[in-house]
Design a protein that fits this description.
CATH superfamily of the largest domain: Farnesyl Diphosphate Synthase
Mean pLDDT: 91
Number of domains: 2
Distance between the termini: 30 Å
Radius of gyration: 21 Å
Number of strands: 2
Number of helices: 16
Largest sheet: 2 strands, antiparallel
Helix content: over 70%
């Protein structure tokens, strides 16, 4: 590994290599207990290694590189970066189960994989255990980071805060689905801030900063950038959750509409709708004859009709404006921050690529 900033492809390769080596040892250990446990662990490994953007390790890396010298080798922070990806898999597996999602990254979700062998109840139980296992593995891999104890204590404190906020945001997300009429744009943004922004951008940046020994001059800039870009990331997810192409996103079309999730997009649509549009949006969703909203064809009933109504309110255009404003806010926050120029350039680019993505 070169002792200088590395390309995104090289970084992902290094993180995935660290994960592959760690998971191989964990699988071997469980294999000795019972072959069924080895198979269980291999399924978990496959979920971890099944592609993905590796956004969290990337933000953590640049948070670290922002103050780490160019001669500082990346090898000693790779276990910590890999731990973020294991934590992310835990969150995805449980989130997919709660949402009843059929696919993730173009493949069956964990609960569907296990259900294919022993039925739905077994699939749900096994998926919970896979998520739990990934969270424990994340702790184990983080503990292997060869850094001084005081630095690891700070890293761990940020990691714990990140996990708590992600779980808190997920609870609010689930709560919102029980009574979406009581939700609001502000509350939807609160969910986005905790469920996504904090553990996708804000805390990974702070996590990386702690890995480098910390720097109080950067805390506020990273916080502002992390929340702004993290919220923009979730707002893009809201749009993709209704209008994304399943062939690109790897997830079923309009999953958010199927589950009745009160996203910022939906709350804005209700707020901006005419009385007749609001009345339609408040009716139970007719799933019959649904077509992919991204295709713009087929009979407009069910999901496709609802997606069209949301578009007609102007809410998607408003969300696009919110994304642009947050990206600008994040970029401004680091424009004068005392970080290495290469890290600033990378974070500016990430602010755009993470929020203008097709999947």
């Amino acid at each position: 590994m070169p002792r200088q900033p590395i390309s995104q492809r090289a970084l992902i390769g290094a993180v995935e290599g660290t994960l592959a080596d760690f998971l191989a040892s964990q699988i071997a250990s469980l294999d000795t207990v019972d072959p069924a446990l080895g198979g269980f662990a291999r399924t978990a490994r496959d979920l971890v290694m099944a592609g993905g953007k590796r956004i969290r390790p990337t933000f953590a890396y640049w948070g670290w590189r922002g103050i780490a010298g160019s001669s500082e080798p990346v090898e000693h922070v790779l276990p910590a970066l890999g731990a973020l990806e294991l934590m992310h898999t835990f969150a995805l597996v449980h989130d997919d189960l709660m949402d009843g999602s059929a696919t993730r990254r173009g493949r069956p979700t964990a609960h569907r994989l296990f259900a294919a062998h022993h039925g739905d109840r077994f699939g749900e139980s096994a998926a919970i255990l896979v998520g739990d296992l990934c969270l424990v593995w994340a702790d184990q891999l983080l503990a292997r980071t060869p850094l001084p104890a005081p630095i690891l204590l700070d890293v761990r404190a940020r990691y714990d805060r990140m996990r708590i906020e992600a779980i808190a945001g997920q609870y609010l997300d689930v709560l919102g689905e029980t009574d979406p009429r009581s939700w609001s744009v502000d509350r939807a943004l609160l969910v986005a801030r905790h469920k996504t922004a904090s553990y996708t951008v804000q805390w990974p940046l702070g996590f990386g900063l702690a890995l480098a020994g910390g720097d109080t001059r950067l805390e506020e800039a990273y916080r502002i950038y992390g929340l702004a870009v993290g919220e923009a990331f979730q707002l893009r997810d809201d749009l993709l959750g209704v209008y994304g192409d399943p062939a690109v996103t790897g997830k079923p079309a309009a999953d958010d509409l199927r589950t009745g999730k009160p996203t910022t997009l939906m709350m804005l649509a209700i707020e901006m709708a005419s009385p007749s549009q609001r009345d339609e949006l408040s009716q139970p969703l007719d799933l019959a004859g649904a077509v992919n909203p991204a295709e713009g064809s087929g009979e407009l009933n069910g999901i496709a009709r609802r997606a069209r109504i949301i578009a007609d309110t102007g809410a998607p255009a408003r969300v696009e404006e919110m994304i642009r404003a947050r990206v600008s806010e994040g970029v401004a926050a680091i424009s004068e921050a005392p970080i290495r120029p290469d890290a600033r350039t990378a974070l500016v680019e990430l602010a755009t690529t993470a929020t203008q993505r097709p999947a």
